[in-house]
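Margin note from the TA: students keep mixing up input and output lines. Inputs are the sequences; the output is the structure of the whole complex. Example:
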Amino acid sequence: MRLNSFLKLIPEFRDYVWGGDRLRPGHNPTAEAWVIWEGDRIESGALTGKTLGEAAVELGVDLLGERVFKRTQLRFPILVKLLDCAQWLSLQVHPDDEQAVKLEGPGHFGKTEAWHILEAQPDAKLIAGLKPDTSADDLANAIRNGTVTRISQYISVTKGDTVFMPAGTLHSLGPGLLIYEVQESSNLTYRVYDWGRAQNEKRSLHIEKSIQVIQPDFVSPVIPAPRYDDGTCEMLVKCEYFTLELLAASSRPIELDTKNETFHAVTVIEGKARLQSEGESIVLEKFQTALVPSSLGKYQFQPLGNCRALKAGG
Ligand SMILES: [Zn+2]
């Protein structure tokens, strides 16, 4: 089935302990909004009520695109979350695809991710890697002793910055950050340290596995906010698992094209925009997301006033 309409998705929310109230006012804590996820339901059009994962199986390459289908077949390959960090998140690491199979078994995937900073308090920090010249032994000792934050690389960030985090990078997000996160769709997280919070079945530490996968020499540099003019599309991250681009406009539309290679996942992060194809148009408010099926081809991103959006692809 060829699909020529935009798929608006209903986000799912998670109320983990470290969340705040910016994503879903009135529901505190709301830590995460899963805006692009295989479990999200479609809100309008021919596929209403189905999950994105079901739509991917039904439509295959027409939804996913040729490049994506070649790599991960019918599985929807990425997950996009918005994170409202009122406290430090657990310090964690993800395996790569190869380590995921080795440590967890066949059918498991690793996780490479990227963050785009939506809001940051003046003193907001994150952790992305280890201090220079940390040896593998220092790292293993610090993790086992619970002193890993002493060798962690703290980085200050501001609104508009982007951080790319290959699998194997030790990382965490600090209080005062509102984040857009794109990642390989995988649930493999090894928690290294949890700031003294009580451990239970849902929040346990994974000491030995994390020692096996952390790359002591990985530090993620910050990619500063690009300078943009009205009606521009800037590539922020391009890796083998996903692309991430920033759309910025106030009056000029941006011409976009899936080229049958990949879906586009468009999330408005400031203002309001309209997506317009030959046969259809939809309006996206702040934090709303539409999936553009690969078979849709050319469409326009039209700002309704000052607007910025992030576009992820496979
Ligand atoms: Zn992570």
